[in-house]
Amino acid sequence: MRRKRPVPTAFTLIELLVVVAIISILSALAVVNLQHAKERANQARCAANLKAIAYALYAYRLDHNRYPLADGTAGPQESMGQTTPGDGPAANGSWDGVPRVLVRLGYLSSESYLFCPSYREQFQGDRLQRFRYAYNNSALDTGGPIGAPNNVDRDSHDIWYARCLWVPVEYSFNPSAKDVRYPHGEDHDRENALMSNGRVELRNGREDFRRAFGISSP
Ligand SMILES: [Zn+2]
Question: How far is the CA of 43 from the centre of ligand 1 (A)?
């Protein structure tokens, strides 16, 4: 008499491994998509912050007949016009912090507008203060020196007013330095920039640096 093969009632090891492999591939895809969605949301929030800063600057200018000077010292206090090389959020006194006076006088309703959302995720407290939006101290009408040669502020027709790139002073002239931080984009060389005509654009700051200084791409 022929014996019947037993009917399998449980998963074999192979089946289990196949299922585990499929699940891990699907979850990896989901994580990547989630990160992209989060970064796109950060870019949009960042652009909205810079728009708010633009309106605040215009309103300040209506009231005071000029734009405010930048905050030269990174930190929780106002320091309009006090440029301390190496201590500002950006570089060398030409790019310093968006002035806190905009918050104190109510042109911005909250200090959260002063920080790029991508940096808010990475840094807290004192460390975050060094990553305030950079503001072009030598932009027209601030009363600061106009058109210093170390500014990436003239891009064919527009002047850059504010941006979320942070450049330590020691790397001002070396956009390839490792410590230059570009907050947005998959290749991490993108930043939102507020242009003098009020537009906000996602820019490749590294390329703009290279063009401005005549450095060829590697
Ligand atoms: Zn940003």
Answer: 6
